[in-house]
Amino acid sequence: MVRKNNLLIIKEMKHFLVTSMLFATLLVPAHAQNATTNRIILAADNPGPVISKDIYGHFSEHLGACIYGGLWVGKDSPIPNKDGVRLDVLNALKEIQIPNLRWPGGCFADTYHWRDGIGPQSQRASIVNVNWGGVTEDNSFGTHEFMALTEELGCDAYISGNVGSGTVREMSEWVEYLTSSNESPVTNLRKQNGRTEPWKVKYFAIGNETWGCGGNMSAEYYADQLKQYSTFLHNYGGNSLYKVACGPGGDDFKWTETLMKNQETRNMYQGISVHYYSVVDGWDVKGSATDFTEREWFETFRLNYDMDRILKLNESVMNLYDPKNTKGIIVDEWGNWFRVEPGTNPGFLYQQNTLRDALTAAIHLNIFNNHAERVKMANLAQIANVLQSIVLTKGDKMVLTPTYYVFRMFRVHQNARMIPMDIKCENYTYGDKSIPAVSASASINDNGVIHISLANLNPSHEINLSCILEGFNPGQMTGEVLTAAEMNAYNSFENQSAVKPASFSAFRMKDKTLEVSLPSKSVVVIEIKQKTK
Ligand code: AHR
Fold first, then answer.
1. 381 CB less than 6 Å from ligand 1?
2. Which candidate, 176, 186, 343, 361, has a CA 20 to 30 Å from the CA of 277?
3. Which of 67, 333, 350, 385 has the most ligand 1 atoms within 8 A of CB, as the residue to mutate?
4. Looking at ligand 1, which atom is closest to the CA of residue 208?
């Protein structure tokens, strides 16, 4: 799948006979006896790059009930909270080791003026959220509240600066306010507002979707803006900004090339963003999040897989101008975008989250793991109550979505080394279209423990798969599975456990080959410890 070298091909031939014979007799059910042999060869003795923990990042925008109600309820709320952040959500986020959080947008970022969101909350300016529902934004969640949240979570801050309607001075001073310990009017203002020490800010984006809601700019015009803005974003004290240039929507590689081709432009940033949403049947239709057919189930995954093509395309442009791989890809918006739930504000983008979304998350995270060489961060859109969320809230209730559980299962890949794999698997075919039925990635951590994450996209039958572990002495193994009887199963406020991970044991090790029986429509993670003498 990722890399196939001569060594792997030879090993593959060596194992092929063994594997296919094993399957014929052991695990393959009658209906699948004639199917393609599904097998993965894992170069466990030759691991690749570190999978940045930041691939497991999140995104919070002032949009619908993402911030207000989803994360923030205010200190005086009857909903249990820590300094205004709801405790149930806080604890859920800590459990999945959220590595970074993007804020304040999205499109909102290019209408956001940070000075509106500092100082006593009662005196903050109210504005209209023109992008999302035209509602009043009272700015009660601002810089101090966001930074306190990241500190509480122990995650990195990823701030999106306003290029579309802001100024160079405004953005420059925001960075100074956040990160400088020098004596200046801006840092004095921060101190007046109760924060003496500067914060650490790791990631800072110079604009969002500047080809669209962030200013409708041409790539050339934005490249000039980028240089100007970036020049005035300073590194203060020990804080070193990882600057993110606004990259393409999907496969617009010409945009990427414009940002990559000149050394002067390349010097202005460390990473380029990529946005890609899966929108079933296009923006005019968008499918329903819960009421869908098998065609839409299939189509969702077909669109999800396109992330791989989009990354490859952008990587090929980047490889041309940056063969030493000094610039990262930051996929800071991804996920399924469905119609809003009936009766909800169309500007709030509130959608339910089913088993289908869990498989979507697995496909994307597997793709990002496999692209660890270039992909340095990714942010699911969005963290709460918006698009493909990991939590949904209603008043004092919170529910964890199937997508949340995939992040919990996959957290083991954070900062582990990606294991290159060669995968051969049967297709999942619907009508005249086919996609690989199995999505996979694997990693090995500092303790020598392997994790293999797998998804069987076929909604009707299990898949028997053998994973050949090269150069690894397998010991103790455990597994976890996420599945449900129905494709559109989801967790509601009334039934919070319709889709929940369970312990998984439909696998065994035969010599150094792991034989797994993947249930239909499931996500599985298997942990394999090294045998100690
Ligand atoms: O995530 C919702 C919106 O999608 C974001 O605000 C914008 O950047 C993108 O178009």
1. yes
2. 343
3. 333
4. 8
Nearest CA to ligand 1 atom 5: 106
Measured by CA distance, the residue closest to atom 8 of ligand 1 is: 106
Instruction: Express each pLDDT in 214-243 by its tens digit.
Output: 999 999 999 999 999 999 999 999 999 999
Q: Are strands 421-424 and 38-42 parallel, antiparallel or unpaired?
A: antiparallel
Q: Distance, CA 137 to ligand 1 centroid (Å)?
A: 17
Query: What per-residue confidence (pLDDT) applies to 511?
Result: 86
3 state DSSP class of 385? coil
In this prediction, residue 70 carries a pLDDT of: 98
Q: In angstroms, rounded to a whole number, what is the distance separating the alpha carbons of residues 474 and 511?
A: 9
Q: Is the CB of 299 under 6 A from ligand 1?
A: no
Identify the bridge partners of residue 453 per DSSP, sorted by sequence position: 441, 525
Q: Could you tell me the CA-to-CA distances from 173 to 112, 178, 200, 245, 464 in Å, in that order? A: 14, 8, 15, 19, 57
Phi/psi at 82 (nearest 5 deg)? -115, 110
Is ligand 1 within 6 A of the CB of residue 330?
no
Rounded Cα–Cα distance for residues 177 and 184 (Å): 9
Cis status, amide bond into 414, omega within 30 of 0: no
Q: In angstroms, rounded to a whole number, what is the distance separating the alpha carbons of residues 18 and 22?
A: 6
Question: Would you name the residues annotated as active-site residues?
Answer: 209, 333
Question: Of all protein residues, whose CA lies closest to atom 3 belonging to ligand 1?
Answer: 106
Q: At 532, is the pLDDT very low, low, confident or very high (cuts 50, 70, 90)?
A: confident
Tell me the best of 129, 209, 379 to mutate to test the pocket of ligand 1, counting ligand atoms within 8 Å of each CB and taking the most: 209
Q: 0.90 cut: is pTM over it?
A: yes
pLDDT digit string (tens) for 173-199?
A: 999 999 999 999 999 999 999 999 999
Share of the chain above pLDDT 90, in %: 92
Structure tokens at 372: 């660890």
Task: Report whether residue 333 contacts ligand 1, using a CB cutoff of 6 Å.
Answer: yes
pLDDT of 300-340, one tens digit each?
A: 999 999 999 999 999 999 999 999 999 999 999 999 999 99
Residue having the nearest C-alpha atom to atom 2 of ligand 1: 106
